Q: What sequence folds into this?
């Protein structure tokens, strides 16, 4: 049996497309919507493979912690990264091409980076895998990312740069048990 489960979140981000000749070269922001869709093949007897709340608690929260009300930067956009550092502003540096390598925070690139992050965050669920991620940069412009959207080199660079950070985050968040029949009550 195959089924799909989707959780939607919205965040506010700033970015610019370095070396773009039109208006996206300027610093600007978006209210982005992100749809996280998972494929699952087995359900627990409570009735689901994963609770929607768990996707929010771990996946949506990681995205919010890293990007919401922050600036997503090309690693070579040094003046902007320095400005974020000097003002104590939140920023996230793209890593698809490796540490400090040119990579613009376009919808396509951010979507692939998020896909791999969410994949790592939920790797410990044996019957669940990331199916696709839809990233709306505006209400009428979006990109869909699937497994075959990812270049092997990007995956290698991303894992080299982010694997430890993301797996530590996932471990710190742990797994919540939502089935009361499996929760051990505290000893009083």
A:
């Amino acid at each position: 049996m195959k089924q799909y489960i989707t959780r939607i979140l919205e965040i506010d981000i700033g970015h610019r497309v370095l070396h773009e000749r039109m208006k996206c070269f300027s610093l600007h922001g978006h209210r982005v919507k992100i749809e996280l869709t998972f494929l699952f093949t087995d359900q627990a007897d409570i009735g689901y493979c994963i609770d929607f709340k768990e996707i929010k608690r771990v996946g949506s929260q990681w995205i919010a912690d890293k990007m919401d009300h922050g600036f997503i930067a090309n690693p070579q956009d040094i003046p902007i990264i320095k400005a974020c550092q000097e003002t104590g502003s939140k920023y996230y540096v793209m890593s698809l091409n490796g540490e400090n390598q040119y990579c613009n925070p376009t919808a396509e690139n951010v979507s692939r980076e998020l896909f791999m992050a969410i994949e790592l965050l939920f790797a410990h669920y044996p019957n669940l895998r990331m199916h696709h991620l839809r990233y709306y940069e505006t209400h009428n412009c979006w990109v869909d990312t699937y497994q075959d959207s990812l270049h092997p080199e990007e995956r290698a660079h991303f894992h080299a740069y982010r694997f430890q950070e993301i797996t530590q985050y996932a471990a710190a968040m742990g797994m919540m048990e939502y089935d009361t029949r499996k929760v051990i009550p505290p000893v009083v």
In short: The longest helix spans residues 152-173. The mean pLDDT is 93.
